[in-house]
Amino acid sequence: MKTKVFKANERGTADHGWLKANFSFSFAHYYNPEKINFGALRVLNDDVIEGGMGFGTHPHENMEIITIPLKGSLKHRDSMSNKWIPIETGEVQVMSAGSGVQHSEMNNHPNEEINLFQIWIIPNKENVTPRYDQKKFDESERKNKLQVLVSSIDNPIEDSLTIHQDAKISRVDLDKNTDFKYNLEAKYQGVYIMMIDGEIQLENEILNKRDAIGIEQTSIIDIHALEKSQLLIIEVPMRF
Predict the structure, then answer these.
(1) What is the DSSP letter of 226?
(2) Domain 2-237, what fold?
């Protein structure tokens, strides 16, 4: 097993007043040659956006974009005729930019901030027809068990959203002193685990809120929750 720890306080940062961002990988004005990507995982931003603010219309192409609100409500508009669709905490949004799409993402509340994860995954097909989807996931369905949010469009997992890559994005909420095993889909895959909250032990590492770890060259990952914990687990090809 090969592992690399990414501590929360070592992430890149940006403070634009209306937007406070933490970057797990190089993004915008933050550049770290040792943090470009983890396999096909290119971006994992932890954003806090003030009420009524957000990202104006801008383009994307050939990227799978996943948004997970952790607190608050987002709204989405795009060039595929979607007009200010709300995305609430508990929902997940996916957008395949493909051959090209323009979109806007705004805080859906005028006064309350929103905290979200924005994830970009490099696709295995280019110039596909752009597509959009979102889905609500029941929090109770990830209590001490894996809840798959996103899977491959070529090999979809029931009740998940899909993207153009052999990837899987999941969540699990663990009670204190719970042991959990994660089984990888294939030996060429790697797993990036982001601690949403809590404290876990993985191998000889202790991970706390917003710490992360990249793991490859293994088929099973053993996790022990030292405290009540919430994990985001992103499995991606390391060769793509």
Answers:
(1) S
(2) Jelly Rolls (2.60.120)
